[in-house]
Amino acid sequence: MKNLINDFFLMVQFMTRIPINKSFSCEQENFRRGTVFMPVIGLLVGGIQWIVYKLCIMVLPVNVSVAIILLLGIMLTGALHLDGLGDMSDGFFAFKGNDKIIEIMKDSRIGTYACATIVMDIILKYSLLCSIVPIFSFIIIAAPVIGRFSIVFIAFIGRTAKKTGTGNFFIGNIGKLQMFLALVVTVAILFCICGMNPKYIVVMIFAALIMAILINVFCNKKIGGLTGDLFGADNEMVEILTMLIASVIITKVL
Question: Which runs of E-coded beta strand occur in the chain?
């Protein structure tokens, strides 16, 4: 139990900006076990956003409430995943060699591709949430849960693109047991907390897995593997894909 508590708070500290002023054991084994809690981190971030949305919607229009929770999400994660998406865009679309791409991705300065991609990411999320949340507000939780689960999956199937980096805590360090438990936790959250129809859960998770596979293939061709930045990019794209599917379901089915 002590190890589980350590690993959970390690992941909270690693994946969010929620202040936890304590040192935790952070060996490879801790990160391996901690990946099971990735969907729970999505629940934590999305749950806080959902509560704030429910409070905001009492006095504010839907579009303003959505803008507030998007800002809140960026604050809770320290723009960790957005930064990864931006770095990927700058590096991959610079049309340089492998080594140069990684060098560009490590550069703290933001380029044109990163700026455009981040802006489009936020616009897409804003537009999709404005249309979905009046009917199914739990998408605020479902999207980050599935997004974090996809990080576990892509780290499970991927290989490292460089010898050092935060991504190496996870890439090649996740076993079948952790992968299975992360899937079970994801399904449990979507079914028990979000109250989603099982067939829609299957569709969204399957779509997330396909997206992660395509991203992994693309990254292998560009730089020969994955980095921590690419986890963030994967999360953002899977979140948007999840919202797109929810929007289609609401429009065409419900």
Answer: none
Per the confidence metrics, is the pTM higher than 0.85?
yes
| Angle at CA of residue 36, ends 32 and 37, nearest 5° | 115
In the block, which residue shows the tokens 């990254």? 219
Q: Mean pLDDT, consecutive 10-residue segments, the chain of 254 residues?
A: 84 90 83 94 97 98 98 95 93 76 84 93 97 96 98 95 83 92 97 94 97 96 91 96 96 72
Structure tokens at 2: 């002590």
Distances (CA, A) of 58 to 51, 53, 95, 158: 11, 9, 48, 44
Tokens of 130: 């404005």
> How far apart, in Å, are the Cα atoms of 74 and each of 49, 66, 79?
10, 13, 5
Domain range annotation of the chain: 36-249
